[in-house]
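Reopening this ticket.

The earlier resolution said the output was attached, but the attachment link was broken on my side. Pasting everything inline this time so it's all in one place.
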Amino acid sequence: MHSWNDWNWQIRNSVTQADQLARFIRLVPRETEALDQLQGRLPLRITPYYLSLFAGGDENHPIRKMMVPDKAELVTLPGEKSDSLDEHRSSPVPGIVHRYPDRVLFLVTQFCSAYCRYCTRSHSVGKLTHASSFQWERALEYIAAHPEIRDVVVSGGDPLTLSDQKLEFLLSRLRKIEHVEIIRIGTKVPVVLPQRITPSLVSMLRKYHPLWMSIHFSHPGEITPETAEACAMLADAGIPLGSQTVLLQGINDDPLVMRTLMQHLMKIRVRPYYLYQCDLVPGSGHFRTPVSKGIEIIHSMRGFTSGYAIPHFVIDAPGGGGKIPLLPGYVKEINDEGIVMNNYLGETCFYPGYE
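Inline output:
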């Protein structure tokens, strides 16, 4: 007997073929053309739950645009390249990306329960399944051998697609490494597969504090009662939740949409963390906005909503340069007398210097 609320049923019954998708939405030519050319590229995968958020809607539904292939993704623009962040160059052993001094990214799987068309790891996710136990052991040995690593970000793919048992094995091994202070999990599961957040999963996770979680949110329409409940269960277990959002043209590149998203995240106890400029992955040009749009959105929020609700707008620099924050230009002049600034209303303010 299947159950909509069984996360394994959701994964088994995910839409992965064009003919399946056509049962739920009326495909338009630009989608059909892209679906016919998926071989060797990022596959199609949408959970029944997430599909239900846009099934029956029009072709410009924001969640549909993020999940259903479009012929625009067949075009590679100048500057776009596979592995645009050059993670391979910062990977001392398979599955580990060691770009910053005190932390590593631990890629434990290449599987997600739903594939976003702008995925920064579209060169690898969906093409392999979960990492082998041998690869995990090499990665754990690397972390154990490097005492400067105090923070491990468990990512993928999506680590919450692992079974409770595999995830606990991984967390318990990381917790045994004395110099690992913080473990973070990067996931979109509470958004696309909230059924995965079960009492047994949460009970297991709370044993491995301090444990943090970064959740990929894109649009206010994703914050359903199911997702709110999943986030409540995680927050009640003492797991601090942060959001990571990609700025996407025609989806969330509107100050009101973005402010609504961030304010709704605050209501479900998810702290807005990063707003990313869309990475230079092949076929993502139709999602990318000018950088000035992100700065404009941050400026439109400052002073008009809680500071907690304002994420850091960053570019993850091509070639592995790391995250670089971008801010509106509030500072106008610094001189011997002090600093001249503009506030959120554009009014000039002065703070004296005491050198």
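Reporter confirms the inline version is readable. The CA atoms of residues 112 and 210 lie 25 Å apart. Residues 7-325 form a domain with the TIM Barrel fold (CATH 3.20.20.70).
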